[in-house]
Each structure stands twice: as structure tokens, then as C-alpha cells.
Amino acid sequence: MAAAARSTGRSGAMCITRRLTDICGPSFARFAGAADEVAGRLARWVAVPGDPSAAAEVLRLAAAHDLTVVPRGAGTKIDWGAAPEQVDIMLDTGRLAGIGHQPAGVRVAEIGAGTPLRAAQAVLERAAQRLALDAPSPGATVGGVLAADESGPLRHRHGAPCDQLVGVRYLAADGELTSAGGGTPGLELARLLCGSQGGLGVLVSATLRVQPVPASQVWVTRPVGSPLELPDLVRAVLAARLDPAAVELDLPARASRARPAPHPDDPAAAARARHPSMFRRAAPPAGAGTLTVLLEGGPADVSERVDSLLALLGDEATVDHSAPTWWRSYPFGPGETALRIEVPTTDLHAAVYALRDAAGGPVPIRGSAGQGVVHAALPGSLPAERVASIVTGVRRVLLARRGRCVVVAAPLPVRQAVDLWGELASLPRLRAAKEYLDPHQRLAPGRLPGGL
């Protein structure tokens, strides 16, 4: 495929550009620029189709010329995971946006894949509704959240994004528009597309559950002086049956992790500081970490549960009607190595210590203590071999505790030196799905685990 695609001469490239322009419109097809990368792999063309039929035409054009296609939403997670082997056409879903009309009382909404999540929430809020999705990536689209299966604090009560799915419409590699959902087999296929990073199909729209906006939200925070406190704290919160919407942990690496402002003569550092993923980053507070519990519901009910939680957590606990500054944000930024650690909540402290021991010091960690899913950041300046050693050390500890450590994003040298996913029990199922849905390896080839 690579040889065929790269052999397209200038006249052939111009022909494809004209065809993309015919499909998408004069302002919505072009040769790719320097910013049109996927994990460092530069695209050749960018196409922004205006509707599903146009997107299908783009895929059919790619199939006819043996070109690869990688979907892109807002690009907030475009550097996550492995680089695709080749990016011929970057299919931008920005115009596949909008919210379908839903009759009053129906607790689902069909939302275009290119719709920014915050825009969808703003529209639903007018009807006192919301999606139980709170992805940390600022500006993320609904399709991007689903393609990365990106969760925020609300995952504790409502599950991951794929758990909110009722159905999807997606384009297969050959351009056929398909609907999945409704029954068990269809829903299983719809949820298989979650986390596939565009490697199994191009999401066009998703039908998601909606729920009433809670009348009251209260955040109860308690300092955490040592990771050793975590098992008993989390166990007590969960055993109290207070129905928390989220149980989040923030363990900063103390003031030593504070980042200086970029030097005016360092354009790369300045560019990283302007990257969208930095907009929601909170400066790590000095001192101990914190455990924060979100309670939602009716005012009287929430007030009663807050009193019970305060009695449980002790005098150090505080109450606030707004989220902590670090809430719904990642501990990592552009240029750093981002890790996702999944472990039973009873062993979360062991994972924290394993990471500290392997790294030789505290590492910023943030995420769901109630679910045992947290993120961590390693400095981008660490040599790739050092990062590989840290990841290997953490995985050894997690292996005996039924846990995993995944490299979410990393500088190119690290991605080349480290197995990003580690052992993956679902790899045979994923390989079968790839062979069935994309037998010619046209959709983001190499983007999925196992080089799929």
C-alpha cells in the first residue's frame, strides 16, 4: 500500500486534490500543512466533508487509489497512542456536527461526531439535560471522546463513554454507511468502535443517553498525606453507600514539579505552552495530595449525604460548591510521557509507590481513586531508555495485582522504545475485528495495539 500511495506523482496528486475539492467543496480540501500530523506522522491531504455522503465519497476515493485515511476531530488527542504507518488523507469530522431533534421525554440524543462536547452540553442544558461525559481534553468532539474512550470524573458513577452509547452511525473502510446498536450484537459492535482511534470505522454520529442536570453538586475534599491512607479512605467512602458521582485523587509531585515560563527564545517550549491540552492544566499545589468526592442530586438529599461524608472523613474535610482547580484535568502536558494506570482500588497505593520507586521520586498522579484508573506524567526530558525501564518496573508490580500500565502519549523516541500497551488480553478479538471491518488496512493502519 505504501509503495502504491507514494508513487502518486504530481499530476496524480493534483487529480486527487481536485476530486477531494469536488466532494467537500473548494474551501474544504487541501494539501496537508505542517500542523496536520498524527503522532508525528504527516498527512498528504486534508478533507473536511460536509455530510456523511461526502465522507463516504472520500473513503471510496481512498479505496480506489489505495490510500489510507485517518479521522480527526478537534485534534486534542491526535498524538495519543502509536503513529499510523501512513496518513494519506486526514478526514476532518468538524462539519459532521449537530444534535438531532428528540421528542420531549426521550432520554437519548443523536449527536454528530464532529460536535464539540461542550457545545452539545450547552444545547442540552437548555432543556435541563446533560451527557454523563466530562472528558478532560478541552475542545474535544463527541466523536473524538468516543474514539479514544476518554473518561472524566463522572466515569465513577456512569461508566466510560462506551457505556453511554445506545447506537452509532459509522462509515466502513469501503465507504458504506452503517448503523449499529439497538440489540445486543449491534451494541457490542458500536462499543467496539470506542477506543479504536478511527482504526475500525469513521464515526458519523452517536446516539447517547442523556440525564437531568443535577439540582445540587457538592465537592468534599480531604487531604491525603501518604498513599498508604488511600485503601482505607476509598474503602470507607465506597462502603458508606453515599452514591458518589466521582471519587478523584490528586497527588502532585510537590513544588519541585512547578514549570517555569518558556524562554522567549525557545519557540518549541512556547508552542507547547499554547497547546490546547494546557488550557485546563492547574498548577500543582505544594504539600499533600487530596481526595475529593463529588455528590450530586436534590439539595436536601445531597446535604444529608454531605453530613454523613464529613462525619466519615473527619475534621480535615472541607466542603465546596465548586470543583477544585485540578478537577477534570490531566497531570501531563505536551512533550511529556503520559501514563494510564489501571489497578484494583485496594492496590492503588502499591501502584503509586511502584511508580515512585521506578522513577526515583514522586510523580504527579491524578484520576479516579474510586475506579482505580489514574494518569501520571514523566518529564519529556527523560531518555527513552529510562522511560522504558520505569514502565517495565511498574508493569512488573501491577502484573501480580491484575493491573495495567499504558503509555497514552509520549515523545517520538519514547514511542519507538516502549511497548505502549503491554500485554493485552483482548488483542485476538481486536485483530479479528480489524480483519473483518478493515481487511485492506486502510483506516489508520498501525494505530491500534499489535500494529493493527
Question: Can you give keywords for this protein?
Answer:
452 residues; alpha+beta; eight-stranded antiparallel sheet; four-stranded mixed sheet; globular; disordered N terminus
What does this structure look like?
By secondary structure, the protein is of the alpha+beta class. The strands form five sheets. Strands 16-13-15-14-18-19-17-20 form an eight-stranded antiparallel beta sheet. Strands 1-4-6-5 form a four-stranded mixed beta sheet, with helices on one face. It has a four-stranded antiparallel beta sheet with strand order 7-11-9-10. The radius of gyration is 22 Å and the shape is globular.
